[in-house]
What we know:
This protein has helices at residues 2-22, 48-59, 85-96, 112-127, and strands at 36-43, 65-70, 75-81, 104-106. By secondary structure, it is an alpha+beta fold. It has a single domain, classed as Alpha-Beta Plaits (2-Layer Sandwich), CATH 3.30.70.100. A four-stranded antiparallel beta sheet has the order 2-3-1-4, with helices on both faces. Strand 2 and strand 3 (75-81) form a beta hairpin. Helix 2 (48-59) packs antiparallel against helix 3.
Amino acid sequence: MVKKLFALCKPALFVGLLCLSGSPSVFAEGNSNVLPEKVVVKIDDLSNAERDMIVKEIANDPTLTIEFMCVPAGVMVISCGSDHRVELLKTISRSLSKRGEKRLTELTGKDQAYAEQACADKRNTQYGSDEK
Length: 132
């Protein structure tokens, strides 16, 4: 029975070890440039068209992933390598620059739960709560 179990698990073990051996720098101490980071931003008066433009810009960069976005609250959570955070903020700012004024704020110390709550709060305020 143990031999059968090992035979079934052997391909998964091989793939797992191959993945780990191919990227030792991810586990190297002090190498924070490759670790993923979640950036939370607030965009004042975000429109659907601007959201679409930002999504298109971010889609061009395989190191970026949109984790959460809420147009009514103007919040976004984006995963990126810590060495890409500044470039990410510049990309979003460029997408918003057509309106001229500063509308982008990085919410340092906030997380996805904060963004989701801000979205729920905005939707409840905007559309009314179902609770009575």
